[in-house]
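Subject: mismatched residue count in predicted assembly?

I count 530 residues in my input, but I want to confirm that the predicted structure covers every chain. Input:
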Amino acid sequence: VVAVAMGTEEESFSPSEEETERWMCSAFDMAKDALENGEVPVGCLMVYNDQVVGKGRNEVNETRNATRHAEMVALDQLLDWCRRSNLDVSSVCKRTALYVTVEPCIMCAAALRLSNIPVVVYGCRNERFGGCGSVLDVSSADLPHTGNTFKCVSGHRAEEAVEMLKSFYKQENPNGRLFFLFL
Amino acid sequence: MEPQTKRWKGSECDSDSWVAYPVLSDERSQDVELIEAFAAPIVNKKETSRLIRELSGLYPLSSLQHIKRVRAVKEKGSPHPLEVLVCLVSDAPDTRAVTIRSLLPSDGPQCDGLGEPFVVKVPARPPLTRPQFELASKHWPTSFHEDKQVTVALRGELFGPSQKSHMREYMLSALTAAKAGHELGMEAVGAVVVDPVEERIIAVGHDCRGHHPLHHAVMVCIDLVAQSQGGGCYPFDRYPACTFNPAPNSDPIPTDPDTEASSQPYICTGYDFYVTREPCVMCAMALVHSRVGRVFYGTASADGALGTKYKIHTQKDLNHRFEVYKGVLMDVYTCRESVDHVLRKSC
Ligand SMILES: [Zn+2]
Ligand SMILES: [Zn+2]
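Triage response: the counts match. Full output below for your records.
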């Protein structure tokens, strides 16, 4: 049924307000669920063609790999999904939006650029590590060899996202030193 | 390309012709910023301590704690031996003609003993390195709290011959891995992770982005280190040059968490990374998250984040910083190329 001229459609690729509302609602549900289970309260999903192709939660603890942020896990799922669906990764990425409750960190922002994800919708700022303006602005920086810049839509239910992070950090952290690595 | 997979010996090059230079923060590597001030000759040397005391009360120069108030005049035959800083030009009262009288209020320090003021340029900030100190002192006497290690590092003399031979060995392993990756169609980037205390290689990896767009050599090595600690999430078995050595003391299971904190290896804490070329933003930040000890790389890269586009290892807001050295084994990179090319590269 979809028969839109590719050129113009690609340039204007951006989620509608209705889509933003709906997918951020799912991301916040994920974050709440994580908080209730004593995990990092960050919800993150990647949506292509109105379906979730990647979903992530922080896996630093169990993998002992400090780069296993929710976004990186979700990107891996997207790759697997492309392989299973026999679709070209870069053409899927070009039309995929990331919805995440907290601003991606510098590493994840660079990873999103390298993956050519065009748009990121996030809730609150990440004052410690944020890569979409809070610490560095990797999302729009002039880095011609680091994929493409991406558009950010920020502030969606920001206070709620901050409150979840606060209550998480207030909890006694059973893993002590992993404390700093969560975002 | 070369027909065999033997290790690069680099034997045609002098093993000591490369120098590992520190990649310092912008504050440490930038030029000396100067600010204009009024100075005046001390006509009567005996008045010096009174003048300093009274001028310091009137113009404390609290932002210039690193500046000495008085300097000796070096030129022979000068009618006065000393000059004193009166105030910053920006702090001076707004008058058309600046005289020593216009700078000092009538009820303040007595201007007898001081000659007419003139403008000097003084360093605006305390020097952080010896080169900055030497430049600053040319303008006005400046005090300097020297970090001896930085001074030695900037001279390229931080690492002695035995350390350099270890560094050479590690970087050659990284180059060998880079070559192996390149033969599989990946970008020619390799990395080696070392425990510098035990002088032990923990992991060797190369770029694998042909199969996963984010598997840069550093990311591969971070996961191989995780695997050495019983974690990790990617199978790299199909790349024979990507290897890790399991942590030797993965047992016994500690009873209290404090013991665990001290005895068990924890992500990349304290480990050194040797990377053939400067890491990108993603990899540089991954090294921050992994709490790496030091990073050594060979060549700079266009979007590099440890010196070229950013210096993420010196970023103030981040909760972990580390030392970075560049230029390791540059002779192996360059000695195969023409002299012209080497010279052009070094300019
Ligand atoms: Zn992240
Ligand atoms: Zn990289």
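The pocket of zinc ion (ligand 1) is lined by residues A 69, 71, 104-105, 107-108 (CB under 6 Å). Marking this ticket as 'not a bug'.
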